[in-house]
Amino acid sequence: MERIHKKGVLAESSALILAAHDAGAELLWDRYEQQLPLCAFTSNGLNCRKCFQGPCRINPFGDEPARGICGADRDQIVMENLFQATLEGVLESARAAALLGVGDAEQELPDLGPTLSSAASVRLSKTGILPVRKADLFAVQNSYFSHKGYLAPTLRDLTRLGLIHLGFLAQAASAARRSEASPFSPDGVNLLILGHASSELRQALAGLAAQRSGEKRINLVAQAAAVDHGSPELTLGMNVDALLVCPDAAWPGAETLAKRYGIPVLIADAEKSAGQVAAEAIDQACRHAQTAARGAASRLAAMPDVGRPAILDLEQALRSAFTSGRLTGVVVLVGEANVKQSFFERTLASMEAALAARALVLVGGGLAPETAVLAAEVERRKPSLSAFAAELEKDGLQPVSSFGSLLEIPRLASVLNRLTDGAGGGLPVVVGFPEFFRASTWAGAVSFLALGFPVQIGIRLPFWGSPSLVEAITSEWPKITGGRLLATPALPEPAAQAEELVGLLKTPRPA
Ligand code: SF4
User: Fold this and answer.
1) What is the domain extent for residue 324?
2) Is residue 412 assigned to a domain?
3) Shortest-distance Cα residue to atom 2 of ligand 1
4) 298: which of 13, 16, 112, 362 lies 20 to 30 Å off by Cα?
């Protein structure tokens, strides 16, 4: 707790961390430090728990053991770990779609045609990867585990998984957009929802909240929409009145912390009906609001345009800004804060480099709610960038905008593909994942790669224990997808990596 500046680069985050520390609360950094040093085998993808003969591990220095009990070598084990991480990410998004009430077994994935550029469509059809269907989720498997010639076929399956992932995201987005986001009241009662609430539960909550005329408004704040400075554990220091935990919530530590703060915790399980859970959650939140002292560290705020990101309706404006020379390209930044690096440091470095190169920045995923905070920080650090903002105003564009959650990736890709498909060379687009930890976010990166975008990764991936795999994913994968993965075992400094990302804007995408 002594090195607050290492934990996040936003000044307000430090205030929240210190307030939690003063309350004797344990945050994710404390637990991270207790994990150190991290297992070097796992960090390099060199351990395997695929079957119950193991777990097995491979010596990273070439000594014994060089093979698992079944005979799998380092290449096979690392590839298996890469494959399983991607599959887990796709399933995370499939579960989100299911919780939103779409994507049952009979419902086929939506047509991915509009999401693909013409070049990607031709390339993926030629190799037999397209079309993808939901049943392919059960057909893809790292069945090449026992063969030495498995690397390229598995890369094709990873690409297929990336496309299936887009299908689940598109399904979930259509369901999420159907539920109108209620306006946020700064003085309201704050109910924070972790994970995806089912459609029945969201309807029940919205119905009960709307019935409260003449009383404080109930703010139903989805975790994905809250300005949380990088972690829901920090959100809990911002006047939250109750925490509702849904089945796919990812932060067990938040429940413990909420109890420590005296915030009621409710579980959306199958024991109670959606109406019962909603009534209890709102009742407990209101009781808490009546008696709780409002903390001074920060106030909860919700992203105003979640689910309806206006930037995706500005295709013509982007085209106009590019053709007039006011804009050199688009840098898409996706992810969420990761405890292994200073929160938002790499994202801010990428933003600054992009804006200095006169590229528009689109922020999404878990970073989306932080867009305004991050844009203000860039403005504070680099006042000279205001000239670029003034230029873009002529097109009705802002230099930094949010495109929404991961669910919006298919719609974003459709817009970007129409812009990049322009005759005579379209708008250059690069995608960065400067910080993230969720498997579904990694699957999002695989989806962008499958669509043929250049993708840079800002964390150290746990797949570098196999030199053959490094070669395959950096040189063979682009041949399949047209996309390019920029990721290295040694993580560059944030500023250097940001320059590399922006430099990609000048590299034409393969036809
Ligand atoms: S290396 Fe082979 S034997 Fe060991 S856990 Fe993995 S699959 Fe099982």
Assistant:
1) 310-506
2) yes
3) 70
4) 362
Q: Is 171 in the same domain as 188?
A: no
CA-nearest residue for atom 1, ligand 1, is: 68
* Strands (DSSP E) found in 299-428: 329-335, 359-364, 400-404
Give CA–CA dist 134/129, Å, rounded.
13
10 alpha carbon to ligand 1 midpoint, in Å? 44
Distance 450 CA to ligand 1 centre (A): 29
Q: Which of 60, 43, 4, 49 is nearest to 27 (CA)?
A: 4
Give the total number of structural domains in the chain. 3
Ligand 1 centroid from CA 130, angstroms: 32
pLDDT digits (tens, 9 = 90+) for 437-483: 999 999 999 999 999 999 999 999 998 898 888 888 888 888 899 99
Query: What is the structure's pLDDT at 34?
Result: 92
Place of tokens 């029940």: 204
Structural domain includes residue 511 = no
In this prediction the pTM is 0.93
| Ligand 1 atom nearest to CA at 69 | 3
pLDDT at residue 1 is higher than 80? no
CA-nearest residue for atom 8, ligand 1, is: 51
Q: What is the tens place of the pLDDT at every residue in 119-162?
A: 889 999 998 899 898 888 887 665 556 566 667 788 889 999 99
Residue whose C-alpha is closest to residue 363's, from 387, 324, 331: 331
